[in-house]
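Can you please make up a protein's amino acid sequence together with its fold in token form to help me picture the idea?
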Amino acid sequence: MKNKNDRKLYIGGTILFILLLLVAFSGILFGKGDIINTDNATQPPSMQHLFGTDPLGRDLLSRSFIGMRLSLLLGFIAQLICFVIGVIVGSISAYFGGILDKAFVFLQNVILSFPSMVLIFCISMLLGTGVFSMMVALCIFGWLSYARLTRSQVRALKDAAFIRGARAVGSSTSAIIFRHIVPNVIRTVVPMFTLMIGHAVLGIAGLSFLGFGVQPPNAEIGLMIRDGMTYIRTFPWLFVFPGLVLAVYSVLLNVVSDALQDRLDIHDSANISSM
């Protein structure tokens, strides 16, 4: 079973890595996708334009990868912010307990009583359109998932033998948290980080699709899907290919996250060390 999980991780991770390289160097490989040529407008897929062209004659392949690059970059930044905040808040809440932990649990219950996407849309409407407003909307509650997982792991670890040993030799509270507990907790949060990047990319694409996120003329995968919807009956490739690119990256991030979760199983006590 472990070999099967490792194989899934290696295969999925390799494919994802290659596709991330394609996204990173899409401008060099496929061009910038911003050359307007109305003579080539809405051409179907061909050897010259594998994904066809848009109504302004721009190559859809290059614009799809450039748009995906922006979504992945924004998703990574948003989840990195959530990751740092969530791990710190969850570690402090669980380690000290008491009123801090009760306050966190109360806040968690209040936030979780509302659908997350409804909260994100409400915040986006209050803050207005644009990248900054969208990032705030994604981050303001996004850290909670990391904090919940971190809290549960810290509660299990804080009374472990190596933590008691660290206290016995006079290690400070900050040293115990950041040198002993957090490194052991991070390995269980990494799979969630990978998974949540995929969710963030879908959220960014969804917000841009609805007009709250990235604004034209920027190339963003959600915007491209929205624009393609207008021509779905006449020029379906304008909708199908950007949607396919978004789906492939989201599925791969989920596959790699699932494989990482199996590979870095926290219940495998042999992998828990004092770092």
About this structure: The chain has one domain: 2-26+61-271. Residues 198 and 251 are 8 Å apart (CA to CA).
